[in-house]
Please model this.
Amino acid sequence: MELLWSSLKKRELANLAGDHLADVADATEHGIHHNPQLPWSFLTHTGLTIHPPHPPNLRKDQ
Model:
């Protein structure tokens, strides 16, 4: 979780001055949805696993 949060703070949340908490939530969701493999790659880096062991199948248009 910390690796993902750190990455989002450096990119999507960098210099964000949202008027509402929803602005931060939207930017965070955009960052995760823009690269859906990102959370999985950070999980792999930790050596931990969860089920399912692989990311769900993603449509190519995502």
